[in-house]
Amino acid sequence: MKTAQIDRIRIHPIKALDHIELEETTVGVHSLLNDRIFAITAADGRYVNGKRTGKVNELKATYDLPNRSITLEKRTGGTAQKFDLDEHNKELIEYLSDFFEMGIMLLASNKGELMDVPTKSSVTVLSEASLRSLQDNFPKHSLEDLRLRFRANIELKGVESFWEEQLFQEPGTGVRFLAGEVEMIGISPRARCNVPPRNPLTGETDKQFVKLMMESRAKSLPANSMLTKHGNLYHLSVDTYIPASEKGKTLRKDDPIKILGPVDLKTA
Q1: Could you give the residue ranges of the DSSP H alpha helices within 136-260?
Q2: How far is CA 161 from CA 123, 127, 130, 135, 261, in A?
Q3: Cα–Cα distance between 26 and 6 in angstroms, integer?
């Protein structure tokens, strides 16, 4: 019997910008430590992210989290500039405002509040096999290109495609599981938006992407899949919840995944 294991761990310190890949990470408050601890917002209060503008894909971000710094540069070239990673850093805010051509603010929170589904669902799980299955419909896209489009926190190895969809059931019922020593609850499949169709390095939109992805999902849907109970087939990866009790525990590459059983989400 195959055992699912963690193969990759990725966090995005600034929402919508580049990731850091880790060998291990600590669980923070309902989230992975340093994941989406900053977010860029505009004057209207909305996030400046891939749903709003493809310009986020044009900005390269490199982090030095131990020293709380970030280096930014345009992917098309130019001078890289290093900043202290602080929500009140005026130089950083001015750089981002100039780049996005709008007044922006930098929000900070280490409580899982800057996720797409704040607190209730802060970690996404996907398998490499699922990405490879999609790749059959996207032969021009590398595996890494697809990773960058779907931005999962945890990527699994050692299982067949869409194995991770065992980690959710019908709406209202979650699945409790262990990732190494960390207890998590699979909530639902992740409904996708207009971000995956964007080229992760240029922001250019592939108008055929959604159609091709749904065709791929239709022909590769696992037996007894609960996916259709959650709407259309434009879903990939699993949204999960990390209880407050797990704060301070460690997730590591090669940690096994063990399914514990269903749980009523109203009481979880």
Answers
A1: 143-150, 209-220
A2: 19, 7, 4, 11, 21
A3: 14
**Which tokens in the block code for residue 83?**
């900043």
Q: Tokens 């996708």, residue? A: 192
- Span between the terminal Cα atoms of the chain, in Å: 29
pLDDT tens digits along 202-216:
999 999 999 999 999
Report yes or no: 50 and 198 within 8 Å, Cβ to Cβ: yes
Q: In what order do the strands lie in the sheet with 5-11?
A: 20-22, 5-11, 154-157, 123-127, 235-241, 182-191, 173-179, 257-264
Q: Where in the chain is the domain with CATH 2.40.33?
A: 5-32+113-264
Q: What is the CATH number of domain 5-32+113-264?
A: 2.40.33
Structure tokens at 106: 């930098």
Q: Cα-flanking dihedrals φ and ψ of residue 6, to 5°?
A: -70, 130
CB 13 within 8 A of CB 37: yes
pLDDT digits (tens, 9 = 90+) for 213-232: 999 999 999 988 999 999 99
